[in-house]
Amino acid sequence: MKRLLLHICCGPCSITTLTTLLGQGFEVTGLFHNPNIHPLTEYVKRRDGCLAVAERLGVKVIVKDDEYDPKAWFRDVAFREGNRCFHCYARRLERTAAIAKRGGFDGFSTTLLYSKYQKHEDIAALGRDMESPTTRFVYHDFREGWSEGIETSKAWGVYRQQYCGCLYSENERYARLLGSGS
After folding, report:
1. Cα separation of 148 and 17, whole Å?
2. In percent, how much of the chain has pLDDT > 70?
3. What residues does each domain of the chain span?
4. Global confidence as pTM
5. Which residues are documented as binding site for [4Fe-4S] cluster?
6. CATH of domain 3-178
């Protein structure tokens, strides 16, 4: 397996993920498809961070700005907010698998496997469920490069987000700003 399509959620998560895959001999193409990132300004910062890292590492990236559609994701998770991460992972991995298959890639993977804050086993199971005989899901526990990725992203000046990406995670991250609510 040589040609791999890598779903990329942001620049910092892509650094050690890309270096690992490139070091394993894969010809990697990135895919920036993150239709649930909120707000749009956050999406743009993450996209630009992804592109900066890719340029630095010499990796091509397919950017799906035309598919940015948080309203569709909100419809997916309406009344299922407790299981919103599953829907987020599924939407992005389904699109990655479809593009990989149509593009003749040997495999696909995701930088979501880098974050220690994501539901790693769910992501891996979804990826395996979406593979086909011609386009396999490439699993790797990229969390091993967590600290290195953080340090490198700081040294390179890559935008570092403070929450997962959706409106719910942003609210959870900043809820403390509301105080005790007298």
Report:
1. 11
2. 98
3. 3-178
4. 0.93
5. 9-10, 85, 88
6. 3.40.50.620
